[in-house]
Amino acid sequence: MASRTRKFIDRMRAGEDIGLDRSGSKGRQRTINADGSYNMERRTGRFLGNFNPYHWVISTSWSRYWMVVFGFYGVMNVLFASAYFLVGIEQLDGMRGNDAFTQWLYCFFFSAQSFTTVGYGGIHPVGEFANFLATLEAFIGLMTFALATGTLYGRFSKPISRIKYSENILIAPYAGATGMQFMIANELETTLMDMEARVNISWVDVDDNGNAFRNFRQVSLQVDKIMMFPTNWVLNHPIDEESVLYGKTLEEIKAMDVEIFVLVKGFDDVFSQTIYSRHSFMVDQFVWGAKFRKPFSINEKGRVVMDLTKVGEYDTVPMPEMVSLGA
Question: Are 51 and 89 spatial neighbours (Cβ–Cβ below 8 Å)?
């Protein structure tokens, strides 16, 4: 009991608790997806769960956003076109076509003109029901485009981060010993500055009663802050006597079910706001005995060329013998 209490207190020290589950169950998927989102399912007991339309529209991908916008526009025009057709085409002056489909098609065109408040005037309502429908549709159209404009502005004005992470995390030779390293780079043309990184390691441990639990600890970095971020940044955790990974072989690291959590933040001068990026590395992404290649070079004009396609590329290198033996 005393041992479990001590381990819990150790976890609650400043910088160690990152708010994640301590369950030591096997076969658990990664906690943070590659895009920075949490790999979890929320159940609220409500019909729509925790679905928030505005949050979804702001945060979803551009392809889904435009699919929803055009889909809603098309569905509304189909519904109103059918309503105009059902109340009677005689209530729409200027209608054309001798067959039902052509008449419905012109109802659709009139609906689009009313929904967007364009109103060309070629077709106009003359009946009470048609005028009521046109009034309702014009109101819905105005509100819809106002909401669409607001969400579109919200998407463009929202500060975003596109930090590219290396595919693997390396155990590399460092200062006569070893270090745990991964690489990041900025995929956007924006200028990031005052970058800061925090890295936490999680592994499965066993208490005195043989119960498995997940432990967390913030690891020390060789450099955890940089002023400017024009090319790439290799974050290095020296594996010294205080490191959880000290003296561990790759097989032992895998047996510990290690997961690395990364939080990067920096100031974006385009949005004049602080941006954040989350990421995690699973144990199967560890590579033993490798060193990252530089993803940038100097061209014939003397300018630095940053090749984002080369971020994370590495070469295998020999490891210090005493470390590779787990000493």
Answer: no
